[in-house]
């Protein structure tokens, strides 16, 4: 802690090797210090300004939600950039990739290299889950690992009954967040083996998982939650960001 107090954030030189090393250490830092620490916030902001984090477009050719994976009580927008819960069970084809119990949908595109960042609009909602998953996540029945973050194939953040929780492998990490967040940032870095969640309104780090080597490509995964006694009707929206050549090159359907 004394070292942190004597560190001048303005002198941090974020070349690529150092950026990857610091990202890997962020998880341990977040467990020890409050997320408002200036050097941590400066790290995330500097990665954006230096192009170390790749924003992804929500255009259908970049990243869009795959309606063939969506639970029958989920409505996917025409452009695949939002998902809404409906209490009506839709008559949809029973496909192997469709979630039949958990209210999930994943992106059509998977990513297997580079650094990627999404911002998800959750304003006005009282229950949601979102994160990243391997395509091998369980999708049928009531098994625990069908839920985001409950198995070893996915990493998630959840908001329910006013509390924020990060999940992986069925292990919950309750987050000390007191204000209502309207936009969540999801960052994955393949070089650093890192999955991070941020309060995108202020670029505040919330929680990071230090994965190491990813074993498969990653898909964005969303769960808008049920109606929660009539308080959770709004959709989850993938916010627009300008496409970049590197994000197009690193994207693949898998």
Topology:
Layout lengths: L1 H4 L10 H17 L5 H12 L24 E3 L5 E4 L19 E2 L2 E3 L3 E7 L5 E7 L20 E7 L2 E6 L2 E4 L8 E7 L4 E6 L4 E7 L8 E5 L12 E3 L6 H6 E3 L1
Antiparallel strand pairs: 1-2, 2-14, 3-13, 4-15, 5-10, 5-14, 6-7, 6-13, 7-8, 8-9, 10-11, 11-12
What does the model show?
By secondary structure, the protein is an alpha+beta fold. It has a single domain, classed as Jelly Rolls (Sandwich). Helix content is 15%, strand content 29%. It has 4 helices and 15 strands. The strands form 3 sheets. The chain has a 7-stranded antiparallel sheet with strand order 1-2-14-5-10-11-12, with helices on one face. A 6-stranded antiparallel sheet has the order 3-13-6-7-8-9, with no helix packed on it. A two-stranded antiparallel sheet has the order 4-15. The longest helix has 17 residues, at 16-32. The chain is globular. The relative contact order is 0.21.
Which structural traits does this protein have?
254 residues, 15 strands, 6-stranded antiparallel sheet, 15% helix, disordered C terminus
């Amino acid at each position: 802690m004394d070292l942190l107090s004597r560190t001048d954030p303005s002198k941090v030189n974020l070349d690529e090797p150092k950026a990857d090393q610091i990202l890997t250490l962020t998880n341990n830092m977040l467990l020890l210090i409050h997320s408002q620490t200036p050097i941590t916030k400066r790290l995330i902001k500097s990665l954006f300004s230096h192009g170390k984090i790749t924003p992804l477009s929500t255009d259908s050719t970049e990243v869009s939600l795959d309606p063939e994976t969506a639970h029958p009580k989920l409505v996917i927008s025409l452009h695949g950039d939002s998902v809404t819960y409906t209490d009506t069970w839709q008559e949809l084809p029973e496909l192997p990739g469709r979630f039949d119990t958990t209210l999930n949908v994943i992106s059509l595109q998977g990513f297997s290299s580079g650094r990627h960042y999404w911002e998800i609009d959750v304003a006005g909602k009282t229950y949601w889950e979102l994160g990243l998953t391997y395509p091998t996540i369980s999708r049928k029945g009531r098994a625990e690992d069908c839920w985001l973050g409950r198995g070893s194939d996915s990493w998630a953040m959840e908001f329910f009954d006013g509390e924020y929780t990060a999940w992986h492998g069925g292990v919950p990490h309750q987050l000390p967040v007191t204000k209502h967040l309207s936009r969540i940032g999801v960052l994955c870095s393949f070089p650093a083996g890192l999955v991070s969640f941020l309060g995108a309104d202020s670029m505040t780090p919330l929680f990071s998982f230090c994965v190491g080597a990813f074993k498969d490509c990653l898909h964005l995964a969303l769960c808008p939650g049920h109606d929660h006694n009539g308080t959770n009707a709004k959709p989850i929206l993938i916010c627009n960001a300008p496409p970049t050549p590197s994000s197009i090159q690193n994207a693949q359907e898998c």
